[in-house]
Amino acid sequence: MGDSCVHPTLSHECAGQENVYCFSEQRCCNSLRLTQPVQATLSSLKMLDVGKWPIFSLCSEEELQLIRQACVFGSAGNEVLYTTVNDEIFVLGTNCCGCLGLGDVQSTIEPRRLDSLSGKKIASFSYGSGPHIVLATTEGEVFTWGHNAYSQLGNGTTNHGLVPCQISTNLSNKQVIEVACGSYHSLVLTSDGEVFAWGYNNSGQVGSGSTVNQPIPRRVTGCLQNKVVVTIACGQMCCMAVVDTGEVYVWGYNGNGQLGLGSSGNQPTPCRVAALQGIRVQRVACGYAHTLVLTDEGQVYAWGANSYGQLGTGNKSNQSYPTPVTVEKDRIIEIAACHSTHTSAAKTQGGHVYMWGQCRGQSVILPHLTHFSCTDDVFACFATPAVSWRLLSVEPDDHLTVAESLKREFDNPDTADLKFLVDGKYIYAHKVLLKIRCEHFRSSLEDNEDDIVEMSEFSYPVYRAFLEYLYTDSISLSPEEAVGLLDLATFYRENRLKKLCQQTIKQGICEENAIALLSAAVKYDAQDLEEFCFRFCINHLTVVTQTSGFAEMDHDLLKNFISKASRVGAFKN
């Protein structure tokens, strides 16, 4: 287990096969004929079995049962940090450059508790190739440790950090919500949408406008000065930031075209990826020298190095501009890459997981359908090294949470004290829960002794979905049915449910139903959804105008649509 500390490789994609790490997360869509329900939830965390990573074979079955979060890292996937159900943090592995944070550089084949972070809850975690570690707590604090030859720990020195050190310079009044590491530089995102960077800067990856290393956190400004950043990612020696308007800003090393600017020159300050004009990006992921983004329509674009087929374009030619990646006909909801590898992965709305790029020594040049249920498994079983592309979350299988118990009781006649009669069918519910969860029921059920309520204003599928939402915080409807639920949510003033309905409709939009969904958005004054549907119609104008929905379009809506489309130049040659 005696890894030596890694030193930087400066230029090309494969030089020295440098192991450099990063994480990020993703989601979205592709052109889709929607017949099956779309599962929508505003808060979902991937649950999986950590046992697929070889490093966990060193843990006992009892220890594995206690794990709730984990991240595998290191030049050979030989180090791991994990949290337990008791909020304790443990580390295990080779401990190169003190990256386990134990105060020494001794490897450990048995899990050791990281007492210096006792009681801290991890919100975000990333690692570099030294490796160095950057961790954000749920309270917004930042801790770093490990390799520090290039000031990537942000503590103003170049001494390796053997124990976690809180980084507060220029961050003392900030709440950090996301962290990302390049090879030897670090990036953090604050709750107010600001980005700070520090560390190795030979290619401008700190975004300061120079190539001088940055020893402490420095805000990345320039084009980001008045922007609100919503997510970040790092490649080996480059950075990506997605802002709330869906634009992507990039800076740093660009020798393989990984910045997507159409060139191979380095960029020392943030620059917008102009080729994505009019495309709203939601997530970004960086491989060793390639980049993936996911749009709000579920389309994946890739650019950068491609010698292993990691762009998924069917060849091995580098691309310096964003290039669409086709994954069957299904909509993509998650993309994955990790800057220690040349591997890419994606998950579709239907639950299929695809992988491409370097997969166990093979070059897979097109997205390949796997038997996995999550993208994390791709990196556990096929990436070299077998590391995590993000902080893993593990759900216990022997305990029902309060939320899970409530889900079980929905529509259960054995425990219910209230029945709704809708379209001749009963839906079973619990008065106390409805009153707790919904203002409408809090007043309507206050002095109501009846145990049956007849409902004629809404259909059975829509009203059942509404009641189920009160138990589960999620909905499972086709976009067409979600329009009816949007009507109900508007009527009951359930704003969070309105957001879920709009999300479901966005994920299920296609050329055939786009006009109907646009009409519904206008009717229910869902302005964000209206703008989304309008942009979809413009982007697919030729097909949309040939549908029956367009032919039967309301006269006033058609008049407004043509006027607005004309203003955005949709009818120019």
UniProtKB/TrEMBL annotation:
Segments crossing the lipid bilayer: none
Family annotation (CDD domains): BACK_RCBTB2, BTB_POZ_RCBTB2_CHC1L
Main location: cytoplasm
Location in the cell: Cytoplasmic vesicle, Secretory vesicle, Acrosome
Gene3D superfamilies for this protein: 1.25.40.420, Potassium Channel Kv1.1, Chain A (3.30.710.10), Regulator of chromosome condensation 1/beta-lactamase-inhibitor protein II (2.130.10.30)
Cellular component GO terms held in the UniProt record: acrosomal vesicle
Domain BTB residue range list: 416-479
The entry's keywords: Cytoplasmic vesicle, Repeat
One Pfam family matching this protein: BTB
Name listed for the protein in its UniProt record: RCC1 and BTB domain-containing protein 2
